[in-house]
Amino acid sequence: MNLTPVSLRAHIAVAARTITPTWSLDSFIAVNPLSRYENLLFGEDPALPPGTRFTRPEDDYLDAHHKGDISTSALRAAIAEMIPEIAGTPDITVDGHTMTAIDVAVTDLLNKHVTNPDVFDPSENGGSLVSVVDDVAAHWLARLLGSPQWATAAGDEDLYRVFRRLAAHDWLLPHACRHRLRGLPHTAEETILHVLATGQITGNDLAGVLENQLGALSGWTSHIVHHARSHPQATLTEYLGIRFALHHALDYPLPTSRVGHRPDRRDLVRDAITLSRECFGGNPDGRGPVSRVLMFLNAQVRPLVWQKAAEIHYRSTLIRILDAPQPVDKATSAQFVFCIDTRSEGIRRHLESDQQIDTFGFAGFFATPLHFRPLHATASRDHYPALLSAGMPTTETAADELQSSRRKRGLLLDAAVTGSSDKAAHLPVAAFSWAETAGWLTGAAAAARTLAPTFTRRWGQALGSLFTPQIDTRIVLPDRFTVEEQTDLAEAALRMMGLTDFAPLVIFTGHRSTTQNNLFQAVLDCGACGGNGGAPNARAAAAIFNNPHVRAALIDRGLPIPATTRFVAAEHDTTTDSLTILDADVIPDPHHMALQQLAHSITAASDALTRERAGSLPGTSHRSRTHKIRARAHDWAEMYPELGLAGNAALLIGPRQISRGSNLHRRVFLHSYDSAADPEGTALEAIMTAPLLVAQWINHQYYFSTINPDTLGAGNKTLHNPIQNLGVLAGHGGDLRIGLPWQSVAAGTHLLHNPLRLSVLIQAPLDHISRIIATTDTLRNLLDNQWINLHARPDSSTEWRQYNRYGFAPIVRTSR
Amino acid sequence: MTDPRTSQTLTLMTRIEIVCPVDLAQALSELIRVTGATGYTSVAGISGLGHGGHHNGPNLFNDRNALTMIITVLPPGKAPSLIDAIRTLLTDDSGVMFVSDTHVSRPGYFQ
Description:
By secondary structure, chain A is of the alpha/beta class. Helix content of chain A is 46%, strand content 12%.
């Protein structure tokens, strides 16, 4: 094999195809960490990171069965669906006692413990030696990519060149190692080629070597993939240059074998004897037919069957709830449009206690992708889903210039004080004297924040408002955003959520979270807004819909909006459940009065939701006072300010009428859709190719962070050490963590998130759904490879049917 | 060669077009940059019918799960290594590469 620098990069890109990028902390986006395997059947045995698995241990499922969370009928349905060979096996009769093959399989699943697939043993692959390379590489990456001082030193030099230049002076490395580093070529590609040639690595071994090196620090690797999008001088090739250089300099050979699980083999004869005895007593005639059933229940399939059963159990419960919606009165006073986020289900349900209120679900950026720069801010943030590549440059202007100038002075003062103190605290020379002079002040502030978080916050806000007063602003859309483009987005939004009959008030309600001392704050904010609060998007959407030119254009498109209808922006704080009306100063009087009449319903809904959430938050109960629950938002020691999207399990696309009045326990993404408003199915296509995929990303992020907290989750929050804005370490070194912290999915050993693959339910014409799937590769992969489950019905008078690669089949109803 | 319409001299170059999933674009642009090509053109929202079946055009709110077309032009001497690298990149992925001769009026832009 004749490798050139450019072909080497191609081989590295191929080896890196299984790596999912991880976003930085301030824009953390939920993603499926195994998304690059979605072209394979869920649970198929790819070379996952060592210790990583697709399902929970069998004992967990057995516990769930004993608690009633997985019914036996769901287990039977799962076997029938997943293993048609067993479902098609004739009944087994021994000594006049007859059992179905499915019953035999159920007996096996309920009584057997088959050893789980072995996890990879690093020592078999030179692990103890390789871990030294990992330690040194992680140490250098943390400095070169995570520290401003080192990053500045890097300048335009690529990552490998900086490493080679500086590591040659690292006295923590042995002298011989430093000497060998100096002798290596100056570019990453030449170094890799040199080390490959020295190690006599042939073409056949190249892929294994590269995959091994990329998988060794999989967290750093996935962060570098994302980082390289904006930093072409720090790609995976430069990173591998560092690793190969260390292997060479430390004289550790490159492992060539690929990592992965060893398939487990169950002892069919032994297990058949045991199971036959349980099913048919001591008669040996049962062993043969029983062993034929067991052939299809190997160690890889068993937990997948259990997982499927857990999902069927949940789906059956959900469908039973949807079968009994409450009658709905026509709303007359207000329509709230919320994000599809599962947390919105709670506030929507409580708001709808007021029969005058209707609610809708839509992607939380409200069809307005923004590149938003707040007033006086120096940087913009991306308020749009990660599925999109750009947003409209949008900013704010002050309603009162005098107040604006005062606020700007305050912000400048604040930035100067904060910047100076940060610099003093982090410079090695100044850090100790800074601690001596300012320690007493920061110590007192820390004590106040710990002992009286609510009081400290109020005091801080009062003090802050003296210098940086809150002022009214107006959202400013770019001039180049034409009326026609605005109308396109407005029409798409209305058709996607089936909103064609308007109340006097339509309230776009974005959401955000308020937490302190939380590196994973972005996880709790709006994912559709790029891990930011949704207020700017709600304000922009309201501005577009209130634009008389847009309304005139919408009439031509068959979507007239009454002149008496006013669109308003609001924001829901998911930690405190407060719902704040935004830009209230520009709302005309008649609508202002209508909003005041809604205030009581909004307050009642907020209080009811906080009381409801108290039942599931760790450390609280239904008797907890609401102000205590809300105080968590300002407590810097609180690890569970709210539960985020823990528990998410389903996405419902259809009119709100089918779920209104039902308690879905904040586990369902709710996207409004009315096929009558979308005769061609184009709006449905937009939903299935965007919000559905985002819901799937979130679902799989929670799923795998729960099942694999050590390899695909960020681990325990209390140990987290941030590497600038890149990510976190668990402790002082090692791999950069990916995924969600353990506290996002569990409290101690108690799971807050029940890991279930997303069940999607769509009420729409089946031929529309089939066409969209047939023409969308991503959906086909997800559905045909069983990463998500899809159910559909054309209208509410028809039974739900389940998608499979051959079409839609009737659903087997299971008992509780 | 000389363009018979304008009687001006044109310079022979190699034109490489790749149609592939958007998530390969980052790796492709890296290969193009490292090869020494001076630039490329990217066309979003590609649709059509190919080896893997129908591929949709652009989705309203999803730029990511789509196809893109990347076009680069470079001197014939630099092309073989890039062609070889792209062939490797597309080994296990959907995507097609077209290579053709082309002529440019300002060769300095491509060297």
